[in-house]
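Subgroup meeting minutes
Present: P.N., E.W., G.H.
Scribe: E.W.

1. P.N. recapped why we're keeping a running log of single-chain structure predictions: easier to compare across weeks, and new members can see raw inputs and outputs side by side.
2. G.H. added today's entry (472 aa).
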Amino acid sequence: MENSSPIILAIDQGSGSTKALAINLKGEVLAQAEVKIDTTFPQPGWVEQDPEEIWRSVVAASLQITKAHKISAVGLSIQRESVLFWDRTTGKALTNVITWQDRRASELAEKSAKNAARVKEITGLELDPMFSALKAQWLLENQNFTSDIRIGTIDSWIAFKLGAGHIIEAGSASRTQLLDIKTGQWSQELLDLFKVDIKTLPRVCSSDEKHLCTNMQVLGLTNDVPLSGIMGDSHAALFAHKGWITGNFKATFGTGTSLMGLTETDPQTIAWSVGGELTRAAEANILSTGSTLVWLAELLDTTPDELAKLAPESTQQVEIVPAFNGLGAPWWDREATGIIAGLTRGSSRADLAAAALRSTAAQINDVMEDFAKSGIKIDSLYADGGGARNQYLMQMLANLSGKKIKSSRLLELSAFGAAMVAALGAGLATITDIEKIELKYDGYSPRLSEEEREKALKTWHKALAASRMKAR
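Output recorded in log:
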């Protein structure tokens, strides 16, 4: 019964929509609501969203849940690296959200290239416009702010609007490229490099910190319901996969794809801060996966779902390298350009659809091979997010990687992870309780011989090399 277990309101604020879910401590999703949000592209390489629209979507999605369920705590999962400024006094947004996909700071990245090694040493991250620091620097240099500003990420913005103050969760903060990954605190050296005043930044808090907010009524809640779990979407998904268990590596499929697993050897991110302890992870970010299929669907005047259904009918190996704004992991090549290779007069929509999906599987394989060079061994990969429900993609990933894939039947793993952290923060559950929750997975094993696998990857890598020729 619904009331036999405390219910968490899990808010998952993503690139394309905000979702709100009612999740109990048995791991059951009792209700779900979704509100789409718009993305604008004012100039080539610029990707923006309206912060007030994001806030309205949080409220609208949440109210659909809270009107029917008694909520004990709130968990928040968010798109990472996106940044915005607002007025400290009035709370009015002074900029649009500059999203993680935005590349306007590429020129600044080039100018700072000499500092790349030091930036990576402190943060674990490659110097790249995807991260918040360069975007914040660009805004500071290109817009005239006369008021006392606050700088924040999406979790900062939502927490501020809920009345939790000016905060940022440790894992989210580690993706700004302003945080020292070893200490979990802002790095003055990086603040000086990117010309950001520490007074404009939020306080770094733990993932399971219990925040008693002053504006919960906008979500249909009383102010004694705590915001007690905050995580970046990828971190929350890893937590949902019980990522604290050795060897649990995951891929979250969305607009892009994040691969993440815990490690203390050359970590790239803080996975979470729970129980007062910082936990670090290896992570690789592929910039374009789900968005590749969206782009192709728009080009061919159809839908991503229809294209995905066509893909199994493919008879030719066409390759798409989706370097729309350069390539992310493992290449981090800002000069790479998007290409389609292997076209013939006989090439069909099905071949293009298969190529779009293959680009996702091939990029993930490249990342896993790069991880292997660092001694990170992945025997099987957990999968979640929209792409995880595509059986053709999951089998292709198993084939090209030579690994077993475990695809979660519960797609909303980020929301689930945030709910579980919120349960910890509110004192409703322990890690032992969460470990007892059994999630269901579908398994995929490789079906290609090693020779067939190498042949398929050779064609991909030939197209990839062509995409990166400009950088040589």
